[in-house]
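Late entry, evening session. Most of the bench is empty. Finally got around to the prediction I had been postponing all week. Sequence below, unchanged from the version circulated by S.P.
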Amino acid sequence: MIRDRRATIAWLSVIALGWAALAAIDPRLPHGAAALAARPWLVWQVTPIIVIPMALATVWYVRGERRGARETSGRHFLFAAALLLLFLVLQSPIEGFSDQFLTVHQVEHMTLDTIAPMLLLLAAPQAALLRGMPEWLRHRIVPRIMGHGVLHRTFAAISQPVPASFLFVGISDFWMIPSIHDASLRDPLVHELWHVTLFVSGLIFFFRLLDPRPAPLGAPLLTRMLMCWFAEMNAILFGFYLSFKSAVLYHAYGRMAPFWHVSALSDERFGGLTMWIPGSMMIALAAMVALYRAASYEDRAAGRLALAAAALPPRGRVFLAERQRANRAVAFGLTGFVGFVLIVAVIAAILYDRTFSRERHLGAATTATATALNSEATHVRREAPARRELSP
């Protein structure tokens, strides 16, 4: 008991000292558009509420990996890559540029809600983190949180495929509403809430999508593909709209125009392309990982059934024929999925182009008519005095 208290006091003391040190250092670091324009590589941050949880997660993961079964090097790499990307987009000059350009902001948010959650769920660091936690935290706090009835039921409800998909897409689209988007850029607390909700929704979405358990414990493969289709169509259509629109939507960005010479409209179009192409590619990559996991599970299940029947696993032509049929079905499914996405994107592009072309032509015709009328009225006003002078 005394040892646990000493360990608790030691952990809390280290956290408090680290928090105070980071809070004292951060205001002295260069910030703002002027520093970004002069020496952008020096504009780093050390926000305690971000850096300390990352440091604790790293320490607990290393301790847990040493205490228990050694994980593969691939999982170590995925966990380290996820933490490194989170640190870079939240504490490096990327965070400073994200307040100036929508394009950089889209890269940051794609990392927060897609890339980092996907890497973390593939790394599966839960067991190592629990083993590395202090005894008092692992045995007293975590069970109370995880075993809480309301929290458990809430997570079980929102982590189902349909709620998880709508949460993932809805939160992303909610923060892209122009008035809310601009307001969040002006308020640091709301901006941090934006980041937290994106990251949490990404974790819930990829928890269900990349769940290694097959049905019925996990979601069926078709359901996972539909989740990917829903998220990808949202990224494609929203990104397409931002890429080809003709008016500026977001006015809260600094954009550092004197330094980078990037117009607001061009910045938003590049931001739309970032959401459209790299964003949809990340969702497609997650779909491929889910397919690979499903195929690997089927191979292992077939091997176990063969061994249980006291027979060798299928070899040679029989095995190849079975796998070819399964792979052919998966290939046709992927081809149909990609073809459907492309067809919908092309139809949306044609409708969008026709609609806005008609509006542009109508606007140009109206402007030309107004200009002609104004010119005629001006000409009449100029000729009127001359006619009065010539009249007897």
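Two things to note before I forget:
The mean pLDDT is 81.
DSSP finds 16 helices and no strands in the chain.
Will write this up properly tomorrow.
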